[in-house]
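Our preliminary data section would be incomplete without showing what the modeling component actually yields. Below, a chain of 291 amino acids is followed by its predicted structure, encoded as tokens that our downstream tools consume directly.
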Amino acid sequence: MTNLSSRVLLLQTIRRIRIQAYRRAIRGCLILTLFVTAAAASSQEPSGSAPSPLPAQQTNTSAIGGNDRQVSLRTLPSNLLADQKDIWLFPGKLAKGQHWIPTVVIAGITSGLVASDPNTAPPFRTSNSFSGYNRVLSGTNTGAFIAAVPASIYAIGLIKKDSYAQSTALLAAEAFADGFALDLAFKGITGRKQPLQYTGEGPYADSFFNGTHNPFHSGGFYSVHAMAATSVAAVIAHRYRNHRWVPFVAYGLAGAISFARITGSNHFPSDVFFGGAMGFVIARYAVLPAR
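Predicted structure:
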């Protein structure tokens, strides 16, 4: 009996050590990513062969973002209003036969996931396999990380007087704000429960319209964390695509953050997929194109 107790204690100790090492590794990856993303912003080269203007007149605009939308703190509010107009009038474009293929693809995948949600969510709800992963990539931690990435890029832009970096950060903030406004409407209308509100092996049925319609509640359709991570990733991946590693890191982290919303039972898979899709579409086709 003593040997058995010692063995169990040893296994528990080894497990705790592994979990702690796993958490430190993920935290280290997040911190490293924050620094390398900032490094990409600080290493962006200005384009053009013309002589550099005086420092007071210098604008560090890269050719790779030459066709992107212009943004500043002053123009950000008007940009947001223009974005919201385009977003809410999007059904009119569908009526004219535009953008049908991507719309059908996103709607089809989302519908399939909604149909499978009652059976795919319970295994994550009843498992402790992702406990360490969920603690590190909690909603609070990932929310702070998502905000810190564009904030650090903007700070570097201010320090280096790099307008390109500042614009990148503002475009990321604009994409998030647009997606968040749309998310409030979706959550208020759909009133979807979280998987956390269920118990047992499932199926977790009747989740729509049976939860709170408060748009600021945690969970619901769609995932604001998935939208925010993907929209920020889309802006940074596009603006710094001359650094080949940036898109892989940006989208890889967005995927990890999004997956944590499923493993933590904060969202159903369809919430996360649709949130990520909205973040990408809004960033690439509503925010970044020049007007």
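DSSP finds eleven helices and no strands in the chain. The mean pLDDT is 84. Preliminary results of this kind motivate Aim 1 of the renewal.
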